[in-house]
């Protein structure tokens, strides 16, 4: 699934992150994000904000819209609605398979074969 960013520069000095097509909205408390905000977890938010700040410098501002055209379709196959996330699938920790990439190291005690 492809994930895109649209960045609009401004002079506010602040970086704001918004969810576009395929990025859902948090509708319930309990997942560490404010209700009504884009359903993008803290670590990806920090990564995006840090990269944008590095690119634009310390005084400029930017509005960053993250969008994933296939996000709504992918969200139908997840538990997102039960978690209070509507219309999105965006998980930077997984890469198209059912195990996080960091746990796929051969011979690791935490490899998928030891999870059974």
Strand content: 15-25%
Question: What separation lies between the terminal Cα atoms?
Answer: 28 Å
Tell me the count of domains: 1
Q: What's the pLDDT, averaged over the residues?
A: 75
CA-based shape: globular
Largest beta sheet, briefly?
3 strands, mixed
Number of separate helices: 3
Radius of gyration (CA) equals 16 Å
Strand-pairing-aware structural class: alpha+beta
Spatial sequence of strands, sheet with the most strands? 1-4-2
Count of extended strands: 5
- What order do the SSEs take from the amino end to the carboxyl end, as H and E? EEEHEHHE
Low-confidence stretches: 89-116
Fraction of residues in helix = 10-25%
Give a summary of the structure in a few sentences.
21% of the residues lie in helices and 20% in strands. It has helices at residues 42-56, 71-75, 80-83; strands at 4-10, 15-19, 25-26, 61-67, 85-86.
Describe the structure.
The protein is 21% helix and 20% strand. It is an alpha+beta fold. It has one domain. The strands form 2 sheets. Strands 1-4-2 form a 3-stranded mixed β-sheet, with helices on one face. A two-stranded antiparallel ribbon has the order 3-5. The longest helix is centred in the middle third of the chain and has 15 residues, at 42-56. The model is unreliable at 89-116 (pLDDT under 50). Keywords: Cobalamin biosynthesis, Methyltransferase, S-adenosyl-L-methionine, Transferase. This is Cobalt-precorrin-6 synthase, anaerobic. One of its GO terms (biological process) is methylation.
């Amino acid at each position: 699934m492809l994930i895109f960013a649209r960045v609009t520069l401004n002079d506010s000095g602040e970086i704001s992150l918004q969810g576009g097509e395929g990025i859902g909205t948090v509708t319930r408390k309990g997942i560490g994000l404010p209700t009504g905000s884009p359903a993008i977890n803290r670590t990806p938010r920090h990564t995006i904000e840090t990269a944008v700040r590095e690119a634009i410098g310390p005084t400029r501002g930017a509005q960053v819209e993250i969008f994933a055209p296939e996000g709504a379709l992918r969200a139908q196959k997840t538990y997102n609605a039960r978690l209070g996330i509507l219309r999105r699938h965006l998980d930077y920790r997984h890469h198209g398979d059912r195990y996080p990439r960091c746990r796929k190291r051969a011979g690791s005690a935490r490899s998928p074969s030891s999870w059974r």
